[in-house]
Design goal:
The complex is a heterodimer of chains A (about 110) and B (about 120).
Chain A (H helix, E strand, L loop, with lengths): L3 E4 L2 E4 L5 E7 L5 E7 L5 E7 L6 E2 L7 E3 L5 E6 L8 E8 L7 E2 L3 E5 L1
Parallel strand pairs in A: 2-11
Antiparallel strand pairs in A: 1-3, 3-8, 4-5, 4-9, 5-6, 7-8, 9-10, 9-11
Chain B lengths: L2 E3 L4 E5 L4 E3 L2 E3 L5 E8 L6 E7 L7 E2 L2 E6 L4 E6 L8 E9 L6 E3 L3 E6 L1
Parallel strand pairs in B: 2-12
Antiparallel strand pairs in B: 1-4, 3-9, 5-6, 5-10, 7-8, 8-9, 10-11, 10-12
Classes of the chains: A mainly beta (about 110), B mainly beta (about 120).
């Protein structure tokens, strides 16, 4: 039981490049979330999903897209990276009817 | 609009003392939940405690307790007998049921425990 895993752990991109972050959970959770954490700040919700095939916008969705084709995976895409997207990205999942979110270890992304 | 406010950017506390981390929230929902998470320097997010808006008793988990004052819209975290390992960032967060799933976080408080 690995919990929530994120791939990759670190990445450096140049402005304008694209990439996809993968989040996987093996707890059969319905809800999945993508957050970003900028230095010295709390987490801000980018997008979330309430089940397979569904996605919804959070607080800061601009510049990101997501997909939830399989229940266990939640992908976060950056089509054209910008320096303002330099951040640590956290994925989390939560089971139906529960309140605790389980977080992945984070992905540190730098855009130069 | 929903909002979480943590007014203490940083705190220093002597080891073994109790510490209270402040959190106030704003929501028009009657049903909501409040969380506290710990983020050590290693970066992972560790769930500490949860309080539902209809829970009559304050939540407790070991050395952690949540001082929930609904009328004042505050949900302070109390750590009893602090330890050096408690040094970390602490985040208050809120979930409100009308949005089904969204959770918002405060800006955090950095707690440093002095030996």
């Amino acid at each position: 039981n690995a919990g929530v895993t994120q791939t990759p752990k670190f990445r450096v991109l140049k402005t304008g490049q694209s990439m996809t972050l993968l989040c996987a959970q093996d707890m059969n959770h319905e809800y999945m979330y993508w957050y970003r954490q900028d230095p010295g700040m709390g987490l801000r919700l980018i997008h979330y999903s309430v089940g397979e095939g569904t996605t919804a916008k959070g607080e800061v969705p601009d510049g990101y897209n997501v997909s939830r084709l399989k229940k266990q995976n939640f992908l976060l895409g950056l089509e054209s990276a910008a320096p303002s997207q330099t951040s640590v990205y956290f994925c989390a999942s939560r089971g139906q009817g529960t309140y605790e979110q389980y977080f992945g270890p984070g992905t540190r992304l730098t855009v130069t | 609009a929903q909002k979480i406010t943590q007014t203490q950017p940083g705190m220093f506390v002597q080891e073994k003392e109790a510490v209270t981390l402040d959190c106030t929230y704003d929501t028009s929902d009657q049903s909501y939940g409040l969380f506290w998470y710990k983020q050590p320097s290693s970066g992972e997010m560790i769930f500490l405690i949860y309080q539902g808006s209809y829970d009559e008793q304050n939540a407790t988990e070991g050395r952690y307790s949540l001082n929930f004052q609904k009328a004042r819209k505050s949900a302070n975290l109390v750590i009893s007998a602090s330890q050096l390992g408690d040094s970390a960032m602490y985040f208050c967060a809120m979930r409100w049921y009308s949005s089904a799933s969204k959770i918002i976080f405060g800006s955090g408080t950095r707690l440093s425990i002095r030996p």
